[in-house]
Amino acid sequence: MIYLKDSYTKSFEEKILLVEGDKIITQDSSFYAQSGGQPGDKGVLEINDKKFNVINLSLIHISEPTRQAEISYAVFCLK
């Protein structure tokens, strides 16, 4: 996750892997996800000149037996 490398990042570009309803899934994010009682970041995703408010962010961690490390995906809930 980008925020682990630089918590002051204000913008990033990332390929969208899936859009499902009001959720967008990417493989990386500079948003901090809500965790351990600490609130997550709020912000805006801009896609094709349209702006969407991020109201929640979840992280999904997948560990595959064929990989050396787990894969993390960011799931953005939009408004």
Any overview of this molecule?
The protein has 79 residues and is mainly β. It is 5% helix and 44% strand. It has one helix at residues 2-5, and strands spanning 16-20, 23-26, 43-47, 50-62, 71-78. The protein has a 5-stranded antiparallel β-sheet, with no helix packed on it. The protein is globular and about 30 Å long. It starts with a helix and ends with a strand.
Provide keyphrases for this structure.
79 residues, mainly beta, five-stranded antiparallel beta sheet, 5 strands, 44% strand
Strand order within the widest sheet? 1-2-5-4-3
Question: Strand pairing plus helix content: what structural class?
Answer: mainly beta
Cα separation of the termini: 23 Å
Task: Report Rg.
Answer: 13 Å
What count of helical segments does DSSP give?
1
The main pleated sheet reads as: 5 strands, antiparallel
Helix content: under 10%
Shape: globular
- How many strands appear in the DSSP assignment? 5
SSE order, one letter for each helix or strand: HEEEEE
The residue ranges in which pLDDT falls below 50 over 5 or more consecutive positions are none
Q: What is the average of the pLDDT values?
A: 76
**Strand content bin:** 35-45%
Blueprint of the fold:
Elements: H1 2-5, E1 16-20, E2 23-26, E3 43-47, E4 50-62, E5 71-78
Antiparallel strand pairs: 1-2, 2-5, 3-4, 4-5
TL;DR?
The protein is mainly beta. Helix content is 5%, strand content 44%.
